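Good day; I would like, with your permission, to put a structural problem before you. I would ask you to consider whether the tokens describe a fold that such a sequence might reasonably adopt. The full record is reproduced below for your convenience:
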Amino acid sequence: MRTIYIALLLIAFSANSFAQDNTLKQEITKLSKAKWEWMADKDVDKLSTLFHDKSRFVHMSGSWKKDRELEIIKSGSIWYKKADVHDVVVEVIADDTVLLWNRITLTAHVRGNDVANEFTVTEFYHKEGEDWKLLDLTFSKVRDTHEIAH
């Protein structure tokens, strides 16, 4: 009888953990989608709240911190016009740490021209209090046939 009771507790715990992971995955996926919209809208106020003060951004042309990324977005020197998200994979590391990978086609206005590039974008989120903070956003140029393994 004791073995059955322990097995039922383990099943209940696993089901709760699975449901919690799915909730976190949905929350981060929604936040990532909103981030792409804020970037397209050049909404540096919302992005400033989302980006951790020690966040890093890795692009094809370089790597920099939060203040430079916000300046680039605000000035329009890179205007993230539209991110067509083709695939999303989310990995919950802990209740306060989540990694997300987007496979996107990014249309951006750079140096006077509209350009479209295929990327896998890695996003690293950490929860501080009640708020999720983006710690890292890294663009990796890929072919349009690239797939993210689930």
About this structure: The chain has one domain: 2-141. The chain has a mean pLDDT of 88. The longest helix spans residues 2-40. Helices lie at 2-40, 44-50, 66-75.
